[in-house]
UniProtKB/TrEMBL annotation:
<keyword id="KW-0998">Cell outer membrane</keyword>
<protein>
    <submittedName>
        <fullName>RagB/SusD family nutrient uptake outer membrane protein</fullName>
    </submittedName>
</protein>
<dbReference type="Pfam" id="PF07980">
    <property type="entry name" value="SusD_RagB"/>
</dbReference>
<dbReference type="InterPro" id="IPR011990">
    <property type="entry name" value="TPR-like_helical_dom_sf"/>
</dbReference>
<keyword id="KW-0472">Membrane</keyword>
<dbReference type="InterPro" id="IPR012944">
    <property type="entry name" value="SusD_RagB_dom"/>
</dbReference>
<feature type="domain" description="SusD-like N-terminal">
    <location>
        <begin position="60"/>
        <end position="205"/>
    </location>
</feature>
<keyword id="KW-0732">Signal</keyword>
<comment type="similarity">
    <text>Belongs to the SusD family.</text>
</comment>
<dbReference type="GO" id="GO:0009279">
    <property type="term" value="C:cell outer membrane"/>
</dbReference>
<dbReference type="InterPro" id="IPR033985">
    <property type="entry name" value="SusD-like_N"/>
</dbReference>
<feature type="domain" description="RagB/SusD">
    <location>
        <begin position="297"/>
        <end position="572"/>
    </location>
</feature>
<dbReference type="Pfam" id="PF14322">
    <property type="entry name" value="SusD-like_3"/>
</dbReference>
Length: 572
């Protein structure tokens, strides 16, 4: 872990990213701590390191689950799905998030020392200190959560363990041999940092004068706008922290961890508090199904927290588009995933409910066609045929480029991107989204159902209300008679899991959801292929080969070798 912060004072690398002014080289381009702790741009540079490494929806970790196959043989998620996951090789590891934790701890030392002058105005200076301390605490909590999600588990002692929790900066020659806290103690430490951050952060940036949070209400509004105006949008806020608390509480409550009604209740209430501020169920964003397809400079009502809006690009499309429209077809959704979409009337896709295996995409949930390139689809400027006669788009006609499952990906891609045969491209804007409101609605639904069943009310909403609104938005025929037939907690749990699988598909959730639910990790990936006259199921496109203890991911082997107090998870 020493390597994570070995160069924490070598600031020149970062000043190009974080400051408007260029710093003169000092001592062979090294800026000492006295300088960093007195120079506002350099000090804020420490804080901004907390915004690096945020987990967005473009990991495509679904290739390590039953939802997708990656056609690139060296893809890390493919490799771990096939059995290579171990304490030396784990592309899903997040131990390096501790690097950001130490950046935040160093910044908090600077704030506590009170030596930075952000402004000559005393009130503005004070507000900057309050808000930035809140940011650092929230980001410290978030990066600890990333580590917890990836590395919590039952240790070799048989105890459910969390992670080490670092609240101070440690010099490179300091003692990092810190034991893991219990799982619940880790959760409580993260919650405490989130709560401390909430006491300091504005609910949102750019609030009108009458909506300013009590902590800042006594300050002159013109000064308040300098510190907490709309120019700081996209930085972490009180609203975002409340949503992150809901995500953390649901994770902690899940069957693989505490399986605890109290944490389910917390998750439901934290989610409900935020959702009430957007009108509850009526605030479900109408553009949530395809939130990623707009060039609009304004935030989608679906995006609770996102990164900066970049320029036009075609990077993801070049990776994912089918080969006939000049992509590499990298992610191939499985037939398992396709069959998770119900019929248009909301009933599961079975023969008894009208599913025709020789006309498999007729009368299905409209989200299927929006998220998956089906045989015969028009996408990316061409007609895509994955069966006989489909040329280079057909199943495995070009190894590592054409589909392995009979499907290509649409979700998260801009259908209006063009990748031309002459090498030129027409790119479009993309968003790195860290948290969507739909996820928050699904957190409420899952947690409320676990507390009291399908109709348990939380802040005026129930699991049934949430799932009804999501399915109605998706285009499920109304009235939703299948939803109306759900009467038990168990049946609603299954439906919520399936809706979460569809709504949050290919956004990096399922890899972790299967683990927290204690679900099977070894469902074989299936395909579906048109052979010229019939559709044929391919029952074993790619096996999944996880060890039975892979519900809990390993601590990196190098860390456990260096630090004797760091207990490894069982089996690794």
């Amino acid at each position: 872990m020493k390597n994570l912060i070995k160069y924490i004072l070598i600031m020149l690398v970062f000043t190009g990213m974080i400051a408007c002014d260029t710093l003169d080289p000092i001592d062979e381009n090294r800026l000492d701590f006295d300088f960093v702790s007195s120079d506002p741009a350099s000090a804020e540079g420490l804080l901004l390191q907390g915004y690096s490494g945020l987990v967005n929806q473009y990991s495509f970790s679904e290739a390590a689950t039953d939802d997708a196959v990656n056609n690139q043989m060296n893809n890390g998620y493919k490799r771990i799905a096939l059995g290579e996951l171990n304490a030396q090789y784990n592309p899903a590891a997040r131990w390096n998030s501790f690097e950001r934790v130490f950046w935040m701890n160093r910044f908090l030392e600077i704030i506590e020392a009170g030596e930075i002058q952000w402004s000559r105005d005393e009130d503005i200076n004070e507000m900057f200190n309050l808000r930035m301390k809140g940011e650092a605490l929230a980001l410290r909590a978030l990066h600890h959560f990333y580590v917890l999600q990836a590395h919590a588990g039952v240790g070799t002692s048989g105890t459910l363990l969390g992670i080490p929790y670092f609240t101070e900066f440690i010099e490179a020659d300091g003692d990092f041999n810190t034991p893991r806290l219990s799982f619940e103690a880790s959760v409580q430490a993260i919650m405490q940092d989130f709560d401390d951050a909430l006491a300091l952060l504005p609910t949102d940036y750019g609030l009108n004068q009458g909506d300013v949070d009590p902590l800042y209400a006594s300050y002159d509004y013109s000064k308040y706008e300098v510190v907490n105006g709309g120019q700081y949008d996209l930085r972490i806020t009180g609203r975002i922290v409340k949503a992150l608390k809901a995500r953390l509480a649901l994770f902690a409550a899940s069957p693989s961890f505490l399986n605890d009604q109290g944490y389910y209740n917390m998750a439901a209430n934290y989610a409900g508090d935020v959702l009430n501020t957007i009108g509850g169920i009526s605030g479900l964003a109408s553009d949530g199904v395809e939130f990623y397809t707009s060039d609009d400079d304004k935030d989608s009502a679906e995006m609770l927290w996102r990164g900066s809006q970049g320029g036009n690009s075609s990077t993801y499309e070049e990776r994912m588009f089918p080969p006939s429209v000049n992509g590499k077809g990298e992610i191939n959704p499985t037939h398992n995933f396709v069959m998770a979409f119900p019929m248009q009337d909301g009933y599961p896709a079975t023969a008894a409910n009208g599913y025709d295996e020789q006309n498999p995409y007729a009368n299905r949930d409209p989200r299927l066609d929006k998220y998956v390139v089906l045989n015969g689809s028009s996408f990316g400027g061409g007609n895509i045929n994955t069966g006989e006669g489909g040329g280079i788009d057909r199943l495995d006609s070009i190894p590592q480029f054409s589909t392995t499952t009979g499907y290509y990906l649409k979700k998260l891609l801009r259908p209006d991107v063009r990748i031309n045969s002459d090498g030129t491209t027409t790119g479009k804007r993309h968003f790195n989204v860290y948290f969507r409101y739909t996820e928050l609605f699904l957190i409420l639904a899952e947690a409320a159902n676990e507390v009291g069943g399908p109709d348990q009310q939380v802040n005026g909403m129930s699991a049934r209300d949430v799932i009804a609104a999501i399915r109605d938005r998706a285009g499920i025929t109304q009235p939703d008679n299948y939803l109306a037939s759900i009467t038990t907690k168990e049946a609603m749990r299954d439906l919520i899991k399936n809706e979460r699988r569809l709504e949050l598909s290919f956004e990096g959730h399922r890899f972790w959801d299967l683990r927290r639910w204690g679900s099977s990790l070894n469902e074989t990936a299936k395909g579906y292929f048109y052979d010229g006259s019939n559709y044929v199921e391919l029952p074993s496109i790619e096996s999944r080969n996880y060890q039975p203890f892979a519900t809990y991911m390993p601590i990196p082997n190098a860390e456990t070798l260096k630090f004797s107090a760091l207990e490894q998870n069982n089996g690794w």
